[in-house]
């Protein structure tokens, strides 16, 4: 079973072929191919890291764009009458990993 750990959206994710990732919004439209930077690659007994990762490519297909759940931010200061409420929804992209290849 081969898997890789890739850097995606400021985080590291463990991926295999067929894994669906949700990452920060990418500048790509649906059905485009994107590549990720591998941090580690494990294929059976072989483990590649460091300079050996130049041989590894991880590619995926963009499925769709979506927005994350709403996060409510509230500020309050006691005895001053100050209240503030805001919301935030992250822009996300869903990507399906199509290939992990070693040259």
Automatic annotation (TrEMBL):
Superkingdom of source: Bacteria
GO cellular component terms listed in the entry, alphabetical order: ribosome
Keyword set includes Lipid metabolism: no
Keywords: Ribonucleoprotein, Ribosomal protein, RNA-binding, rRNA-binding
Keyword flag DNA repair: no
Family membership noted in the UniProt record: Belongs to the bacterial ribosomal protein bL21 family.
Subunit structure: Part of the 50S ribosomal subunit. Contacts protein L20.
Function, in words: This protein binds to 23S rRNA in the presence of protein L20.
Protein name, per record: Large ribosomal subunit protein bL21
Source organism of the structure: Frondihabitans sucicola
Gene it is expressed from: rplU_2
């Amino acid at each position: 079973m081969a898997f890789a750990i890739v850097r995606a959206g400021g985080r590291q994710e463990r991926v295999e072929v067929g894994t669906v990732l949700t990452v920060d919004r990418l500048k790509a439209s649906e059905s485009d191919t994107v590549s990720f930077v591998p941090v580690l690659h494990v294929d059976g007994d072989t483990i590649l890291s460091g300079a050996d990762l130049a041989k590894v490519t991880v590619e995926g297909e963009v499925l769709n764009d979506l927005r994350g759940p709403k996060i409510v931010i509230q500020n309050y200061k006691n005895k001053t009458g100050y209240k503030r409420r805001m919301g935030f929804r992250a822009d996300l992209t869903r990507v399906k990993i199509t290939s992990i290849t070693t040259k």
